[in-house]
Structures are given as C-alpha cells and as structure tokens.
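Quick review question:
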C-alpha cells in the first residue's frame, strides 16, 4: 500500500482525531491528491428502500483541515442488480450523480456536524431520485 502512496488514517490511534486529520490534510496537500471516503463507515442494508446510515466525521474533518471542497458522489440503490445474500447479479445500468462541491471556505470546526447532516440529507434526496423502484426478488 505504501507503493500506491496511500494516506493512512488509524481509527484506533490514541492521538486526537483532530490532530490526526491535520497531519493527514498536510499529506493530502503535499501529494496533491483527491481522497475517496465512504462517510457511512460501512455498507447499510435497507429492506424498505434506499437509505443512508448516519455519516462519520472523517471526510469532513479532513476537508476542513485541508481547506479543500467536498464533492458528494451518490450511487443508486443496486437492489435490482445485485444481491450478495442470494449470490446473484443482473446486467443493467448503474447511475451515479456527482453533486456540486461544498466549499470549506468560512466553515468553522463547530459547524461540521451540521454541514455533515445537511450533506447527508441532500445526498439521500439524490439517492432516492436516481434509484429505480425496487422489484421483488425471490
């Protein structure tokens, strides 16, 4: 992983998360790279339709400390195309929506939780917009 020039963030580290993200943001800027985050921390499975788990703060802390925008990317619900539990998949079209960037200019650290929740809400609206109605899969 070192060969791919990854930025490592240890979630179990005793160091404060704020300090850890400051260091990671310096590395991000020095390498001039973009970072993909999955802000839910894990995949959610929802039987009632597309939804999102609560977001973790990592992506927002990193963007805040690096003073770089967050570009939310939403992938449609793939219930109709893939089911890991039943070991099947189907061909189809997979939609992805790249949303408007969210600037970190003028954002204060104490505003991050509200910004995170607003971003999640906006992404959920887009998720439901681009996801097709679910079909019954037996």
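Suggested answer, residue by residue:
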């Amino acid at each position: 992983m070192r060969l791919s020039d990854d930025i490592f963030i240890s979630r179990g580290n005793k160091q404060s998360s704020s300090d850890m993200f400051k260091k990671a943001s310096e590395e991000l800027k020095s390498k001039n790279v973009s970072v993909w985050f999955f802000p839910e921390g894990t995949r959610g499975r929802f039987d009632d339709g597309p939804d999102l788990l609560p977001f973790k703060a990592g992506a927002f802390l990193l963007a805040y400390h690096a003073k770089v925008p967050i570009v939310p990317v939403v992938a449609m619900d793939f219930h109709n195309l893939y089911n890991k539990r039943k070991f099947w998949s189907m061909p189809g079209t997979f939609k992805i929506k790249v949303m408007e960037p969210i600037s970190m200019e003028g954002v204060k650290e104490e505003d991050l939780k509200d910004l995170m929740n607003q971003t999640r809400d906006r992404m959920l609206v887009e998720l439901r917009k681009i996801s097709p109605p679910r079909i019954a899969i037996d």
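Why it works: DSSP finds three helices and four strands in the chain. Residues 37 and 59 are 6 Å apart (CA to CA).
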